[in-house]
Amino acid sequence: MTSLVLVLLAATASGGEMDTAWSRARAGDSARYLVERRIVDTDHEGKLHESRLDMTVDAEVVSTREGTVWLKLSARRLGGGKFDDRWRGRDLLLPMPVRLGTSKAPEPPPFVREESLETAGRSWVCRVERKSNPRKPEGTFIEYWTADDPSLYLTRGVVRLKAQLREGGREGSVTVTLQKARRGGTGEKDGVPKGLPLYLQDGMWTKTALAAIKGSYNRVRTFAGAGWILERKESVVGTAPPSPDQRTRRLVDLIDEMSGGWREYEERSLLESSGPAEEPLRFRTGEVRALKRAWTWTGRKDGVKSGNTEFYAADPWDKALEGLSYETRLSRMRVLGGRVEKQVELERLADWGRSEPEEDLLPVKEPGR
Questions:
Q1: How many CB atoms lie within 10 A of CB 323?
Q2: What is residue 75's three-state secondary structure?
Q3: Residue 170 pLDDT more than 90?
C-alpha cells in the first residue's frame, strides 16, 4: 500500500482522513445499519398495496491484501436470524480497491441543515445534505446525514440515509441508520471466505441491446475505489455519439438498493403471475430458466389490449450468470412489449464481462467544505 501515499497526500482534510482510514483498514473493521423500508403501491385498479421490510446489514472487512479491502455484506432479520429464501439468504463479497483515481469527486449534495443524532451508542453531529434523483420525478430525493469521523470510513461518514420515494403510483420511504461501528483487533482472522458470490467487482460491465434502432445498446461500466462506487452508463443509438450518464454512490447507497431488489423476489406472486417462462434466457455462457411478469392494459381510444412482459432469472446464482453483479442478477434480463397477441422484443441483456479500471473515472477525494 506504499504506492498510495502520493495520492493520499493530495486529499483534503476531511476526505484525507477517510482515505487514510481506508489505507489502514484491517480485518474485523465493521459497520451495521438498520434498514426500514415502507412502500405503498397503487395498482392499475387503484387499489393500495403496502409492503414493509425491516432488516440489518453488516459490512465487515474480512481481508486486506494487495491493495484491496474485501468486505462481507450480511443481511439478517431483526432478531438476528438469516433470511430463508435463496436471494437474501446469501452473504456477499465486495472487493474494494484502496487505490484512488485522478478525477475530481462529484460535487456534494446541497447543504440543508445540521442535526444531532443519537445512535450506535453516541451522539453524532451530522451535516444533512439532500440529493434529488435525476432519474425520478420531482419529490423523490435522498438525504445524507454525514459525520466527519474516520471510524465510518466504510460508508464515507454516513450515519443515516433517508430516501423519500414518489414515482408512478408508488410512495414511501427507506431509512438506513447506523447501529454499530467497530474497529478490528490485531488478532482478527484475515482471509477471503470461499464460496460467497460477489456483489460487484471493480471494472465490471454489462451491455443491454435495444431493439428500437438496429445496433442500439446501453453499456454500464462499474468502478470502485476507497468507498466510492462509480457507475457510468453509455447509451448508443444508431450513428449518434455515445451519451454518458454517470452516478457515484457510497456503500450505504448499495445497502439501500439491496433492500429494494430483495423486495421484488420476496413477493414471488409478482414474478410468477404468468407462471414460468416457456423458453429459457439464452446467453453465450448457456441457458438460464426464467420467470416472467406480465403487465397489461387496454387502450382507452382504440380498445387494443397491450402490455409488457419482463423476464428474470429463476435462479440468480445459475452458473451461466458467472461474472454478473448482484444487482444485475436480480434485474429484468429481457423485455417484450406491444400488442398482447404479438409482442416484440424491446430490450435484452446481451453480454457482460470485466475490464481494467479507468483511473480517470474514479473520484480522488471529497471536495473541501
A1: 15
A2: strand
A3: no
